Amino acid sequence: MTNILDTPAISPPSPSELDELISRDPLELSALDIDKIIAMQRNYRAQREAPKGGRKPKAPTQTIDLAAALGLVKPPSVITPPKAGGLRRI
Amino acid sequence: MQIAAEHIAPSEVRSPFLPGTNIQYAWSSTTLDLLKTCPRLYEYTVIQGWASRDESIHLRFGIEYHTALQEYAIARAKEINHEDAIHDTIQQLQGRVYDWVVDRSSRAGKYKNRESIVSLVVDYLDHFVDDPAETFILESGEPAVELSFRLELDWGPKATSHVEMDGNLMEVMSGEKKATRIFDQPYLLCGHLDRIVTYCDNLYVMDHKTSMSTLSGYYFNQWSPSNQMTLYTYAGNIVLHSPVKGVIISAAQIKLEEPNAFQRGFTYRTPDQLSEWTDDLRFWLGQAEAFATANYWPQNDTSCGKFGGCKFREVCSKSPQVRETYLAASFDRVDPLQTANNPFFDRSSE
User: Fold this and answer.
1) What is the pTM of this model?
2) Among A49, B18, B250, B305, who pairs with B23 as Cys (CB 3.0-4.6 Å)?
3) Do B110 and A1 touch (CB under 8 A)?
């Protein structure tokens, strides 16, 4: 069923070098040409597997104490011992 | 159920229907899938031969992929090294696809064309260069790849049956205790097993799949339960005369910008599951005969949205009087006998 939503917005890719080699009459292809097709595909694969443009090293992570930086120093919390009769975790 | 495995003459193409009827007696996983999914889908595809315009691309791509992997597996079984085997495989593949031109502006053509098939085969063979699944070697010494099977069941369409009593052939009569039902044409189950492998000392059928979508757990879940994979396990048991544990789905994802991806998943079948499947089969084939006899295949309108939506959904959503017009406008009508929907169709004849 033709559906306008199925129509790609971009034009189809132009034939690549690999496609050009594959499209040749097999009678005109030598054993070396076949090896070239395989090598070309392996090369494409290696390029695709490599991270694009190399990744920038991550900046060292630092913990910023925002409260201290803003001068909002809180008093240390005080732990009070449980009173008798209170619930106790067992 | 008694089964007889028949050896096949590969180039034979014949009708899977009883002569002069739409009663199908030879079944494949594809046609059974269609019937089980929706009788109307089965009618449009198998009986009438409507096919979407992309289907020839998918079919050709699948055939080339399977053929290439088969040639490579045969070469490796002959102890030819990887580099020489891949060279010969690609040489033969290039010879078959060099003049295959598809419309690359379509989604199917963008993903499936002569360049992507060569790329996918090279990538697959390199990826599994040290394949832990080893091709099983048959008693004949041949590697078990692209094994065609044709299993004859001990029952068939009622239309071809009669009872034999006291040595005379008689009409079918219910309640006749001593009568023996004879089927002139038993049902056949047909198909191709891509490869039989041994993996961790067990036998599996390996089935190659190509996909344009991600190979997630969701993708592999579709094969359990699965009519196709149960039939393949069943057929593997009979063809090999040995217990087959299940099917390894060897899936390849075709990618345009990133490297092609490969994943394998296992799906297992117990003997009881196989038995259940064959019990169910008796009912399904009975239904198929009833539809054919009535010349009516009803819509299963709960299947329309499954698997991304049925290709005939838009047609079925129209009023019955205008459906034929919509079919003709959007689909090609092909001879069903000359497509993979014919269980007697041989991949190598394409």
Assistant:
1) 0.82
2) B18
3) no
